[in-house]
């Protein structure tokens, strides 16, 4: 077991103490994946635990694959028998085996977000509701939130609080929509992503014999990224571990940033209340980042009240201070970032892939993209339209889904007139009305279509039905690739795409060919024992955004901070650090929301290995209007000793007779910013509710050379205060001011606007 020698003492203790409930608090960059991997390897090698008795739950398929490969390197091919994967992939596997217990077949379809929204739109239309009040996205989020809290549609319509909330929002039909949505999913033998967890809870609740089987199969349960679990996920794992209580959770409360998806930070904060015999191990040594970055991150997160105590440290080099960039506008901010990347890459012999630009919202990418294009810097955006979301791909997948699941309403609606067969929407609605109102299976209605529709439409649907039956016959004895190839060719999809000679048409045709390549790769993969179409469709349905991030191309990465979790880059730019942007205006309603935003900032900081840049703009176009911006309060949270104000160069372009050539001009960053002694957490709510200070009518900043300790001064934002200390040493001269309503702040005199009051 040479691998134990590579671990530090806390890591080693977390690996070898395998019995009983365990919590591993893993700070950013502390090697948690290594610990989790070696703990599983140790269970198999030292404790002689069979791999099929170990359940390891992750949050991405990519993480599961990487862990399995690492374990294989230690214990060999036995690792293939581990139950390892995402919550959704593992529980969908269980549900397929046990589907008959809850009224499904093992070939159930997994609806993606588009499928769910399409179904909700149909329900809203059929109920004659106003789609401006009942927006499909809002309705789906409401239903999803209920399911994640294990609230069924019956619980929902009988809950007076939820019903009253809906009435107040003028959406009293929400409960009925929820009920109809669930019933239509069941009739289509389909589950959405939330159902994979909700129905697993139902399965274990209503069928103790099934729960008993899996409780005794999984003698050891391990959960990665535990801070991101919701109530539903926690209850499942708690039930599975109830017999042996060998449950190990790994996570970092400081990186809990998915409350909007239903994650509940209380799961990790209160874990010890559920397990009194809990052993806790803290991984506090950061192997990723420099001391400046680690210390700055610590200075930020210590402002949160709700957290598990730990002190992350690093033995790495001190590195360089965090550079703070102030720009006059969002466009200038983007230019400065692009220029800094260009110069750092040239001076430091770096690749584009060493750089990441992180932002709070996707809309911020526009100005960054434009600046990178002008600087001729290649980039990629993580979180854009994925391959499997393209229309032509979803069209072929819908055919494959309908072959496997004859009850799949959304797949049927998508392909019934694709390619065009002369089947109008009126005929489709008559078919679905017959199915939904009379509870008749869709394939039975199609088999008797002449009893429902007149000749021409019935003949067209009959031809379609015959085609599908032919494909289903092929599916009985062929692998996924053979079926998909036949469908692509005989359905007419490929023919239609090939006939379109535009560049877009050629691209769509190539995309379908690439899908067929992916299916062939799936079939040829020796690790996939099940080569069936059902198995392939399940794998595709469970692909997450985080599984689509690999690229071999040398590009700068642009992504939201949420998408960056789990990743690391040598150079990181966190842009748009302005009030109401980061923290988001939507997250200023409670201390809990604000603390989640601060954790998001902490996650962003800790993605950086060697160098971190923070930037903000004094003005930015938002919602079509130019808005003046204030620096983010999170900049105040950083100890000023870790900050450096930048003077950089802006890259421009000029034209001459020889064409376009690069010209680096000498415009500099305006002097930046802020910061100082941080807000006392006990004042957070008071400050949030405090009325903003209105500057006096004759407000004009005084000459900073006149400022002295003990003076009463006025700040346009923080109001009146007394200068407590002056620090005039070094380039960044500071004043510490105790403001009457905002507490004590340390301000850079080159930036602060203070008016002396003699009264």
Features of the shown structure:
six-stranded parallel sheet; single chain; 759 residues; alpha/beta; 30 helices
Number of strands: 24
Query: Numbering strands along the chain, what is their spatial order in the largest sheet?
Result: 11-12-10-13-14-9-17
- In percent terms, what proportion of residues is strand? 15-25%
Distance between the termini: 74 Å
Q: What Rg, in angstroms, do the CA atoms define?
A: 29 Å
* Contiguous runs where pLDDT drops below 50 for at least 5 residues: 647-689
| Largest sheet properties | 7 strands, parallel
Number of helices: 30
Mean pLDDT: 86
Structural class by sheet pairing and helices: alpha/beta
Describe the protein's architecture and organization.
The chain has 759 residues and is α/β, with parallel strands linked by helices. It has 30 helices and 24 strands. The protein has a seven-stranded parallel sheet with strand order 11-12-10-13-14-9-17. Strand 20 and strand 21 form a beta hairpin. Helix 2 crosses helix 3 (61-75), helix 18 crosses helix 22 (455-475) and helix 22 (455-475) packs antiparallel against helix 23. The longest helix has 22 residues, at 503-524. The protein is globular and about 95 Å long. The model is unreliable at 647-689 (pLDDT under 50).
Could you give a quick summary of the protein structure above?
The protein is of the alpha/beta class and 759 residues long.
Helix and strand topology:
Elements: H1 9-16, E1 22-26, H2 32-45, E2 54-58, H3 61-75, E3 83-86, H4 87-98, E4 109-111, H5 113-126, H6 136-148, H7 153-157, H8 160-168, H9 174-187, E5 190-192, H10 193-206, H11 208-217, E6 220-223, H12 231-240, E7 247-251, H13 266-269, H14 271-274, E8 279-283, H15 291-301, E9 322-327, H16 330-348, E10 355-359, H17 365-374, E11 379-381, H18 391-404, H19 409-415, H20 425-438, H21 442-447, H22 455-475, H23 480-490, H24 493-499, H25 503-524, H26 533-541, E12 556-560, H27 561-564, E13 569-574, H28 591-605, E14 608-617, E15 619-622, E16 625-628, H29 633-637, E17 643-645, E18 650-656, E19 659-665, H30 684-689, E20 712-715, E21 719-727, E22 734-739, E23 743-748, E24 755-757
Parallel strand pairs: 1-7, 1-8, 2-3, 2-6, 4-5, 6-7, 9-14, 9-17, 10-12, 10-13, 11-12, 13-14
Antiparallel strand pairs: 15-16, 18-19, 20-21, 20-24, 21-22, 22-23
């Amino acid at each position: 077991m040479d691998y134990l020698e590579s671990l530090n003492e806390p890591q080693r203790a977390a690996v070898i103490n395998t019995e009983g409930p365990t919590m591993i608090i893993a700070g950013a960059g502390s090697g948690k994946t290594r610990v989790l991997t070696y703990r599983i390897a140790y269970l198999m090698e030292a404790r002689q635990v069979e791999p099929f008795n170990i359940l390891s739950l992750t949050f991405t398929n990519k993480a599961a694959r990487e862990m399995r490969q690492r374990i294989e390197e230690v214990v060999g091919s036995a690792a293939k028998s581990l139950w390892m994967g995402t919550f959704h992939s593992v529980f969908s596997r269980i549900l397929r085996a046990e589907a008959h217990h809850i009224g499904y077949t093992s070939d159930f379809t997994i609806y993606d977000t588009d499928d769910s929204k399409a179904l909700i739109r149909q329900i809203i239309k059929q109920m004659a509701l106003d789609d401006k009040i009942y927006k499909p996205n809002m309705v789906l989020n409401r239903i999803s939130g209920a399911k994640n809290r294990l609230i069924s549609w019956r619980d929902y319509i009988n809950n007076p609080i939820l019903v009253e909330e809906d009435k107040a929002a003028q959406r009293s039909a929400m409960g009925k929509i929820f009920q109809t949505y669930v019933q239509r999913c069941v009739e289509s033998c389909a589950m959405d992503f939330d159902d994979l967890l909700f129905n697993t809870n139902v399965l274990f609740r209503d069928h103790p014999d099934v729960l008993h089987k899996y409780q005794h199969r999984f003698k050891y349960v391990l959960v990665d990224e535990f801070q991101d679990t919701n109530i539903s996920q926690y209850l499942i794992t708690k039930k599975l571990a109830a017999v042996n209580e060998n449950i190990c959770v790994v996570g970092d409360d400081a990186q809990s940033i998915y409350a909007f998806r239903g994650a509940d930070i209380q799961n990790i904060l209160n874990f010890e209340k559920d397990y009194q015999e809990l052993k806790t191990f803290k991984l506090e040594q950061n192997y990723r980042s420099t001391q400046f970055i680690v210390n700055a991150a610590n200075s930020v997160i210590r402002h949160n009240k709700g957290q598990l105590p730990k002190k992350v440290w690093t033995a790495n080099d001190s590195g360089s201070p965090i550079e703070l960039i102030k720009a006059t506008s969002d466009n200038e901010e983007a230019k400065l970032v692009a220029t800094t990347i260009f110069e750092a890459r040239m001076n430091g012999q770096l690749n584009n892939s060493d750089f990441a630009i992180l932002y709070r919202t996707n809309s911020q990418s526009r100005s960054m993209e434009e600046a990178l294009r002008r600087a001729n810097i290649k980039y990629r955006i993580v979180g854009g339209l994925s391959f499997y979301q393209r229309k032509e791909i979803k069209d072929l997948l819908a055919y494959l889904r309908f072959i496997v699941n004859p009850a799949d309403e959304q797949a049927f609606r998508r392909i019934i007139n694709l390619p065009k067969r002369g089947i109008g929407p009126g005929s489709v609605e008559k078919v679905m009305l017959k199915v939904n109102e009379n509870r008749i299976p869709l394939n039975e209605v199609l088999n008797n279509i002449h009893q429902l529709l007149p000749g021409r439409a019935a003949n067209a649907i009959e031809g379609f039905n015959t085609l599908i039956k032919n494909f289903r016959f092929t599916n009985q004895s062929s692998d996924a690739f053979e079926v998909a190839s036949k469908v692509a060719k005989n359905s007419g999809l490929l023919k239609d795409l090939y006939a379109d000679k535009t560049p877009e048409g050629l691209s769509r045709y190539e995309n379908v060919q690439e899908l067929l390549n992916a299916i062939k790769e799936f079939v040829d993969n020796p690790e996939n024992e099940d080569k069936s179409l059902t198995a392939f469709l399940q794998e595709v349905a469970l692909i997450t955004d985080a599984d689509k991030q690999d690229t071999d191309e040398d590009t700068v990465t642009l992504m939201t901070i949420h998408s960056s979790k789990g990743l690391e880059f040598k150079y990181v730019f966190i842009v748009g650090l302005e009030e109401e942007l980061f923290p988001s205006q939507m997250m200023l309603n409670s201390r809990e929301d604000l603390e989640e935003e601060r954790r998001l900032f902490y996650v962003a900081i800790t993605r950086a290995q060697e160098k971190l840049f923070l930037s903000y703009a004094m003005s930015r176009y938002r919602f079509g209007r130019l808005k003046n911006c204030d620096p983010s309060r999170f900049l105040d949270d950083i100890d000023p000793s870790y900050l450096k104000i930048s003077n950089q160069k802006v890259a421009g372009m000029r034209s001459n007779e020889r064409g376009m050539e690069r010209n680096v001009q000498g415009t500099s960053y305006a002097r930046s910013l802020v910061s100082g002694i941080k807000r006392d957490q006990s004042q957070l709510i008071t400050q949030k509710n405090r009325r903003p200070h209105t500057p006096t009518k004759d407000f004009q900043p005084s000459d900073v050379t006149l400022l002295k300790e003990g003076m009463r001064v006025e700040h346009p934002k923080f109001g009146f205060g007394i200068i407590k200390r002056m620090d005039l040493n070094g380039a960044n001269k500071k004043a510490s001011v105790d403001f009457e309503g905002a507490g004590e702040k340390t301000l850079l005199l080159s930036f602060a606007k203070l008016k002396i009051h003699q009264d």
